[in-house]
Amino acid sequence: MKLFAYLPPAVPFLFAALVVGGLASKTLHIALHFHSLPLLYFVLYSPTLVLQDIFVIAFARVLLLTPTPEIKLQWLSTVLGGILSLIVWGASSVQWGFFMQTGAEVDWAASNSFLSDPAAMKILLSGISTVSAAGTIIGLVAWLANTKFYHWTGLGLQAIRGLFSSGIRSRYTLLGVPDRSWLSTSWLTKMDFKTTCRVAIIVSLSSSLLFLELTRPSIPYDHLSGALPLTLLDAFSKKSVTTSGCRQPSQKFPLWTSVNPGLLANGWSRPSWLPESPPSGFSRYEHSPEELAVKDNPSWYGCNEAEPGFYNPKKDPLKISNLDGEIYAPLKAAFDKHNVEIEHVILVTLESGRKEVFPMQQGTPMFDALLDSHPKEEREQAIDKLVTMTPVSQMLTGEYATDSKGQRVNLTGANWQDSAPEGMGGLNVRGAITGSSLTFKSVLGSHCGVHPLPVDLLEETELEIYQPCLPQLFELFNTVKGSDAGSSRSERDESAPPAWKNPWKSVFMQSITDGYDRQDTLNENMGFKHKVVKSTLTSSGSKYQAQGSEINYFGYAETELKPYIKDLFEEAAHNKTRMFLSHITSTTHHPWNTPDDFRNDDYMGSRGSINHTPMNNYLNTVRFVDGWLGEIMAMLDQTGIANSTLVVIVGDHGQAFAEDHKEMTGTYENGHISNYRVPIVFRHPHMPRLNIDANATSISIIPTILDLLIQSKSLDPRDSEMASALLSDYQGQSLIRPFVPSIKQNPDANAQAPRETNSRISRKPHSKPGDHTQHNWNFGIVNAGGSMVAVTAAGTPWRLILPLKENFEYIFSDLDKDPGELHPLNAWTIKELLKEVSSKYGDAAAKWTRDAERVGKWWVNEQRRNWGYREA
User: Which of 65, 126, 152, 392 is 20 to 30 A from 679, alpha carbon to alpha carbon?
Assistant: First the structure.
C-alpha cells in the first residue's frame, strides 16, 4: 500500500497529461512544417499559434478542481475534465506514434473512414507499439511535473481573477444588489498604481495578440494554430467520405425515355456493334451525343451541373491519341507473319511494386541508397547480392543486371527459365508512374482505363465506373458466343482460329481478404463473376484450403493460390475457354513478412543512423514475389498455353522508406516520387523485345491490350469491330505505337481562359494565347485520395504536388536534376512557389508549374463530373 502514497493525485496528473500531450502535439505539428515558414513571420506570429492551446489548458484547469463531497457539480466537472485529459493524452500519443512510423501526421478528418473498416483497424493497430511508447513518455513527463503544472496554472488563473475582482468589482455587489457605479471612469482612481500597470500590460498584450490573429495569413497559420482536442472534431464534423452519386453502379437508363423527340430527326442510332442487351459498363453507349447535350434530361443532370455526366472523349481537352501513328516496325512484322497469338490474358498487379526493384539493378537512386548502408570494403559483395535478388523480373523485362565486375548476371538458378529466343519477350515500359498510391484506385486505372476519383478511399464503389472494365469488355465479346448466329458464322469460316468461338472467363484471385475498403464491391462493379480470395482459402467447402499460416493482417502468402491457378490454366488449355485472370500480390505490403519456410537474407548493412530493418524486410518480400512470378510462368509452360498468353505486369504504387527520404515513409499522404515509379510489362514470347521510354500510366493498359488483340488478329471480325470502336474512347494511349508526349495546337483553339461556375471549372483547362503546346498530363492521387494530387507531363522533368486541402503544401521537383527527389521546393501558396521555382529553375519551369496547378485543379473538378460525384 505504500506504493500508492508515492503516486501523484489523480486530478493534477490528468491535468499535466493534458498539458504535456497538447504541447507535444503542437510542437510536432509546427516542427513538421517549420521548414516552409519564413523565419521572420514565424517569430512574429508564433504567439498566436498557441492561443487555442492556452484556452484549452485554462478550460481544463477550471474543470479539474479537486472534488469535494459537498459540491456534487464539482464532481461532474472533474469527471468531464478527466475525460478531456485522457482524450488529449491518447490523441497526442497516436500522433507521435504515427510520426515515428511514417514521418507524417494524422489527418483526423480521414480517420473515421479507417475506424469503420475492420481490416483498416488492423493496419492502425500494427503501430500500437510506437503509440504505446509515445504515450508512456508523455505520461512519464506528466507524472514528474504534475504538481507544478497544476499549481502554477491555478495561481495564474487565480491572479487574473483577483486582478479583475480586486479594486474593480469590489463594489459590484452589496448584499446581492448590483452596484453599477464602478462602470464609470471613477473606478480607475480606486486602483493602486501596481494594479493599473498589470491591467495595462494585459490589455496591451491582448490587443497585440488580437491584432496579430486578425492580420496573419490564413494559410498556413490557421492550420498550424489548431489545438487538441479541437482538431479532433474534424473526425466528426468533416466527412472525408460523403457520396451522393448521380449514377449508381450498373445503373442503366431506358434508351428513349426522357429524350427530346427532336433528337430522333438528327439521324443518331445505336452503335452497330452494340448488342441489344449489353453487359454492365456500357450504359453511356446507349445514349446519343445529342441526348447527352439535352440539359433538361434528368438522367444526365442529377447533380445539377453545367455539363452532363459521363466521359466524352471528343470533349476531353487533355486527351492525346496516338492511334493514327504507325505500330512499331518489329511488332508490325510479327503481326504480319501471324506469329503473335493471344488467346488468354493475365494481369498481375504487384503490391508496392516499385520499378527500382523490378528488376533490381545498378544505376537508380534506390540502389545507391542501399549501397550507402554498407562500408566501402563490403560494397562489391553487396552489389553481387542485390543484383541476383530478382532473376525472374530480369527475364520478364529484358533488363539484365550486371555484377560488381560489369558482367551480366547468371540467372540459371532461377525457378523459371525464359524459353523465348534472344530479342523476344514483349514490351517493357520505362518511365511509367502510377495513377494513385492507393491500391484500389490504381487498379481502376489498369482494369478500367479511368482516372480515379480524388476523394478519400474507395468512394468509386458507390458510383458507375465511367468506362467499361476488362471483364466487361470480355463479357461483351461473349454476347453472341454459342448463339445460332455465332455458331453458323464459325461453321462457315473453317479457316477461323478455334479460339474465336470460345467464350471468355474472367477470374479474380488474391490470397488476402477482399473486404478491405469495399474491394469486393469494386470487383463486382468491374464485372468479375468468379473469384478466389481469403474467404475461399478458409472455407471448409473449398476444393483447396490454405496450408500455411497468415503472414500479415490481410491474409496468406500468394503461394496458397497455386492449385487454383493451375486448375484455371488447365481449364483454359483443355476446356476451350479464353481466360482473363486478374491477380494482385500482397506479401510486399507492410509489415513485409514471408512464410516460415522462406529464407530471409541480409541485404542491408549497418552503416548510417537509419533503421534498415523495414527496407531489408521489404527486399526479402520482393525476392519472394519474384519467385512466385517464376512459378506462374512455369505453370504456363507446363500447361502448354505460354505461347498464347499475354501476361501484363504492373505495380499498383511504390513504397517510400527512410533510405529514400528521411522525413517521410510509407504512402499515406506522402507524394514522394518513390511511391510513384512502377513497372509496366506486356510479356509474350512471340513478341519482339522493345524497351519503351514513356511517361505513361496504367490507363494505357486497356488501350494496349485492345490494340494487341486487334493487330494480332486474335478476335473475330465482330469482336474486332467492337474493340476498334471502343479503343479510341479510352483516355490512355496504346503503347504498341510511339507515345506522343505533347501536340501543337491551333493558336486560336484554346485561347479562352476557364470560366468559373459555382461548383465547377469550365470544360477547358487553362490556356493562354500564344501557348500552343498541349502536354500529355499525368495525374497521381496521393493516398488516401482527397488531400493531394501529383501532376506531371510527359516530356518534361518537372513534378508538382498539388494540395487539395489548406493544411498541405505545394511541392515542386525537377527529376532530371534531383531524380531521388531529395531537395524539393515547398511553399504554402502557389505565388510563393512560383517565385522559388523561377529563381532556382528558370521561367520555363515556373510557367509549367503555373499551368500544372491550373490544369490539376481543373482535372479534380472534371473527374468529379466524369464520375457523377458530389459531396453531401
Answer: 126
Tell me the per-residue pLDDT of 575-594, one tens digit each, with 9 for 90 and over. Answer: 889 999 999 999 999 889 99
Domains of the chain: 2-237 (no CATH), 329-732 (3.40.720.10), 744-872 (no CATH)
The residue count of the chain comes to 872
291 within 8 A of 297, measured Cβ to Cβ: yes
User: What number of other Cβ atoms are within 10 A of residue 462's Cβ?
Assistant: 19
Q: How far is CA 239 from CA 122, 227, 760, 786, 872, in A?
A: 22, 20, 20, 11, 9
The whole-angstrom distance between residue 693's C-alpha and the CA centroid of its chain comes to: 24
CA distance linking residue 311 with residue 729, whole number of Å: 9
Distance from C-alpha of 325 to C-alpha of 303, rounded to nearest angstrom:
38
What whole-number distance in Å separates Cα of residue 358 and Cα of residue 625? 11
Amino acid at site 1: M
pTM, two decimals, is 0.82
Please write down the HEC assignment for all residues of 175-207: CCEECHHHHCHHHHHHCCHHHHHHHHHHHHHHH
Please write the tens of the pLDDT for every residue from 248-306.
Answer: 454 433 322 233 333 323 334 578 888 888 888 888 887 655 555 444 433 333 344 44
Peptide bond before residue 794 is cis, with ω within 30 degrees of 0:
no
Q: Is the peptide bond before 591 cis (omega within 30 degrees of 0)?
A: yes
Q: 3-class SS at 437? A: coil
Q: State the cell numbers at 711.
A: 493487330
CA 439, 440, 442, 447: dihedral to nearest 10 degrees? 130
DSSP state of 451: P
Question: Comparing C-alpha atoms, which of 759, 799, 761, 758 is closest to residue 780?
Answer: 799
Q: Where are the beta strands (DSSP E) in 238-388?
A: 344-350
Cβ(774)–Cβ(745) under 8 Å? yes
As a whole number of Å, the CA-based R_g of the chain is 32
